[in-house]
Amino acid sequence: MDLLILTPLAAIIALIAAYILARGVLKSPTGDETMNGIADAIREGAGAYMNRQYKTITYVAIAIIVVFAIISLLQEGQAATTWWWTTIGFAVGALFSAFSGYAGMTIAVRANVRVAEAAKSGLPGALKLAFNGGAVSGLAVAGLALLGVAGFFYLFNNILGLADPVNPLVGFAFGSCLVSLFARVGGGIYTKAADVGADLVGKVEAGIPEDDPRNPAVIADNVGDNVGDCAGMGADLFETYAVTAIGAILLGYLLPDVAAVTELVTYPLYLGAFAILASIVSVFFVRMGKDGNIMKALYKGMYASAAISIAGFAYITYLVFADFDYSIIAHLSNAPTGWLDLFYATVVGIFVVIGLVLVTEYYTSTKYSPVKKIAKSSETGAATNIISGLAVGLESTFVPTLIMVFALFLSYMFAGLYGIAVAAVAMLSVTGIIIAMDTYGPITDNAGGIAEMSNLPEEVRNNTDALDAVGNTTKAVTKGYAIGSAALAALVLFADYIFNLEKAMGDGSVTFLLNDPIVLVGLFIGAMLPFLFASFLMESVGRAAGAVIEEVRRQFREMPGIMKGEQKPEYGACVDIVTKSALKEMVIPGLMAVFAPLIVGFLWGPLALGGLLIGVIASGLMVALMMSNGGGAWDNAKKYIEDGNHGGKNSEAHAASVVGDTVGDPYKDTAGPSINPLIKVINTVALIFATLIASVGGILL
């Protein structure tokens, strides 16, 4: 039997499991008419935004398809075939990425009201329902990613028999990255503009609680949780999965003197197939213990997925590489000499995930000192809160960087460059559970909002608050995982770029020297890009939030019956403001990611483009970590004060923490996580155009 066919079959099993979980969630009771009315408004707002967002993205995708088609027509022989299939791969990758984000959000906006209803009966049932709703997204995203990568490879290699069945996969990676970037940017601008506007006027100026139905921005805020954290993160981790797997497959194909489909090419697919089955099994491990610890219950699933994956990876690695002819790669630095070397690299990848998750929790959870320090600093005002939050964000880059450094070193010592690729693929083993934990966050956040706006009893709100408090940490943990996996994947893509250049130039090895001014040109531009990109997004959130603030103030001023509960706010006005702003503001940052590597490559040549890739990976990792962790710490410092510490709600410390949280919101939910797809879009564009830039790049030289 052809073992390769088992990989798309494993993906299909994951999609079936997601469907079964979704049916179970949708069969749960939905509560009373008031609760359903609020949930319907959130669902309709999210659906309307997503439809408009994907319509905008479609125009950009069609333009790129046309460009690729023109290039394909200008090529001959194998090059033309590769470009045509790259074009088709781009279209399918974009479609799958869009669908993966939409699928998760579709269940999330239906699970929220069901979780609020389940919270009436206690925490365990509500927790399980919220997690299952998130698991639908997790299994769907991982299943679609593996199906796309494995399905295309099987088509190219086993059915069509292409001379080069690997390079066209980069088109699929680029399509998934591009949609992810737009989804992350647009959803991030939407959710944080609404959140900031709702908090500053509602909490600080009007003194009303979060999710108070009198706040005109409350529906837009709840919609934003879904289009940002569900759809955005779903598309983000879809492309992370696809790009990492494709990068490893391509590296196995491009290694010097290999240039053939060997076990080095198919091994990442086998790892992905088993890992996705491990994710399905681990869903059943998530249940609350007698101690009532919600985070521990969620971690049970992650640890189960990691443990099952390690056991399976050992067997798969032995099965694939026990009889492998290692002589074909013996000339490579630190080449593996046995199957254990490759297995050890997978173990490194698993422990990187666990390390990044625990470190991110330390910096963003209310249980630990970083968040408590920010809360304490709020007693002396907003300025000291912001200073403390910035310090925590900057500090939070230290340990994750050490984890990444040792992971790179160990995996390289075990199996060279290919070992790094294997470690990156092994990190994907917990993707399903990580996405489930992330989507759990907005589901419980919305459930709390529905409970508040429906005036449900205090004990119900206490249950949803407990679920929501953990959700803030799970969302931060997911971002830490996404950033770490993006860094490893990008390094693999950079190695692929080098090998592609060497193949195209045909004149020996390609080296990037720091005493070469051309390399430095690219390096400085690459290091600058994440900062410029983040500045665009921060300003976009600021402009959109300003418009929301003015609208909320107008309604409070012109409709005094709102605060008395005698008039219903015009929720649609705020929804319309953030929708238009997000769609308008997401275009320029998205196009920046596509055109920056092309401009540098064609003006200064392939060495400058290589320098750009190095710069954007190094600085992008630091900026993303700093923003995501710092923003998460600011958010939970506010939650910590609201739980009755340092004066509690409506104290001066609380007001200061709200200001800090509004700064942290676009940090952690817009700019920070959007840098992940930025890095990979730039790398995949460089890969696709490497041969062309090698032949005609360097116009200024």
Tags for this model:
single chain, 701 residues, mainly alpha
Tell me what the structure shows.
This protein is mainly α and 701 residues long. The protein has helices at 6-26, 33-74, 77-118, 123-159, 169-205, 218-254, 263-282, 294-321, 339-364, 369-377, 382-395, 398-427, 431-453, 458-505, 517-558, 571-585, 587-604, 606-642, 652-688, 690-696. The longest helix has 48 residues, at 458-505. It starts with 5 loop residues before the first helix and ends in a 5-residue tail after the last helix. The mean pLDDT is 89.
How do the strands and helices of this protein lay out in sequence?
Blueprint: H1 6-26, H2 33-74, H3 77-118, H4 123-159, H5 169-205, H6 218-254, H7 263-282, H8 294-321, H9 339-364, H10 369-377, H11 382-395, H12 398-427, H13 431-453, H14 458-505, H15 517-558, H16 571-585, H17 587-604, H18 606-642, H19 652-688, H20 690-696
Helix pairs in contact: 1-4, 1-7, 2-3, 2-5, 2-6, 3-4, 3-5, 3-6, 3-13, 4-6, 4-7, 4-13, 5-6, 5-15, 5-16, 5-17, 5-19, 6-7, 6-12, 6-13, 6-14, 6-16, 6-19, 7-8, 7-12, 8-9, 9-12, 9-14, 10-11, 10-18, 11-18, 11-19, 12-14, 13-14, 14-18, 14-19, 14-20, 15-16, 15-17, 15-18, ...
Judging from the principal axes of the Cα atoms, what is the shape?
globular
Report the oligomer: single chain
By DSSP, the count of extended strands is 0
Helix content: over 70%
Q: Give the radius of gyration.
A: 24 Å
- Give the structural class: mainly alpha
